[in-house]
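Reopening this ticket.

The earlier resolution said the output was attached, but the attachment link was broken on my side. Pasting everything inline this time so it's all in one place.
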Amino acid sequence: MLAGACIASAAGTVQVQVQTQTGADDIEVGEQFYVYMKLDNIDGEPSAPTVPGASVKYFTLSSQSSSMTSINGKVTRTSSRTYVATCSASKEGSYSFGPVTIGGVKSNKASYKIVKAGSGSLSKMQQRQQQRTQQSASSQANAAPGASDPQDSSPKFIGKGNEKLFLKASVSKSSAYEQEALVYTVKLYSSYAPIKFIGATEAPKFDGFVVEESDEVSKSLQYETYNGHEYATAVIARYIIFPQMTGKLTIKGNTYTVSTDEQEYYDDPYFRMLTVRRPVQLNVTPNDLVIDVKALPLPQPADFSGGVGQFSISSSLPSANLKSNQAASIEYVVKGSGNLKYIKLPDLNNIYPKQLEVFTPTAEVDAAPRGANVSGSVKFDYSFTPLETGNYTIPEVALVYFNPATGQYEKSVAKGYDVVVDKGTLSEKSQTKNRLKFDTSLMPVGKLSASHSLFVRSAAYWLWFLLPALILIACVFIYRRQLKSAADIVGTRMRKAGKVAAKRLKKAAACMKAGNRETFYDEMLTALWGYVGAKLNIPVSELNRQNVAEKLSAAGASEEAVGEFVAVLDDCEFAKYAPGSGDDELKSVYERGSRVIESLEDAKLSR
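Inline output:
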């Protein structure tokens, strides 16, 4: 710097601006929007702001620049910085942000309005889709892919991506069997530096699949050469998917948002080369995939468990010495990898001795995505009651499953047991006889009258015999009715479907109160799928939207109830993979799910 030069700074200003992704005036609940804070010639550093009606996801410095000019020994210095807060709208209303004071300078005030999701002639999602379509067409007509106007500071929507940043989706197998586990992976390729991965703005479209999300994603960037160019890469999403129907199924890539800086270079006569970074938001969609799903080979074994993968089954009996009419237990454990959560064991009442009454088991699932499959175990804890004394054999239990690696049905067998049933205390009848004792003080004194009638001939005497007989007949009737009801496993599941769903909804409410949104949506989906499967006796392998809608209508459910049931399912699955939902959205999903189950219960659906 020249001696004696006078250094001055331009007047400082702070400007704030609220901007939506689509450029629309209103912001929908759940939509992402941005608050920009531009500081010109300010030395202070802003802290992460509190934005009314929204939650702040990220707050970062997006760009900065500075310059100096010297005229007649007077040096003027200017600087500019822009900070951006990425927000998620959570509550309807009219709000304003600011004024904020930074470095002693007060900013302006920016007003905005948050409206209900889906309101207006077009939802935000539809607006974004139209905007991407229009911009894609304009880009193809007027410029090379990825070209941008340096004067345009709005976010860039580049659709499928360009040579500098794109997503690539892949699946472990393009041809698979129904219910076979597949790995769907989304990988990010970028030559920008640096980048910030914000997350998915839409849920992936896994129509016809059951999905398990895996947390095995990249923790840091790797470098890879692709098509002759070097890219920083990262696996940003991985799912284990199970096809539920045959034919060609399409997986549509969802939209991810990435924030980066686009560098611009200027040749300044005083400072030579200047580099200015300008923030851009990139919404990128991976390629779609088509999977050819084959049906399981026919004929299927009669005792097919529905399992597709590789499994083994084992059994354990705490004690082989049992007592009649006293409950005992036996546990079967299925281990392996595949669609573990949907395996069903055969009806033990059909293979156990008739003297052993077996009850509906309690299943405990410990399975999670690991590597290229869902692995773990499922425990089936059965309670049974020996009805008679004697020596009995608990037979072997076979688990029949389909192994996609060999293309054949295979069998794993759990060992059986020889048990001895002794007489239980509950089954023994008391040998004590209550004898009638006469009180001689109550005997009449004197001679019997000629008109005296014997007590044996009275109605009260015979009532003592008739009353126990009637009670015994009633007990036998009630007992046989309970046996019949217990044997009707399907009917019992149908009758208890509403109660089981209510317990699941209660767990979902607890998760909602605790703010655990992912577990909340899992419990809601389990309650909905479990209720309709038990109520209409639909096997887990046949649970899909189309089949459920058809069977609900055939069982007597109204068109509105069927539509609402399917809509709640879709909203739960969408929200599970979408950005964080607000409390109001969780409450809305919970109330809708409760109402639709109550309406189906009131409709008294037939089998």
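Reporter confirms the inline version is readable. Residues 68 and 286 are 45 Å apart (CA to CA). Helices lie at 124-142, 459-487, 489-514, 517-535, 545-554, 559-577, 583-602.
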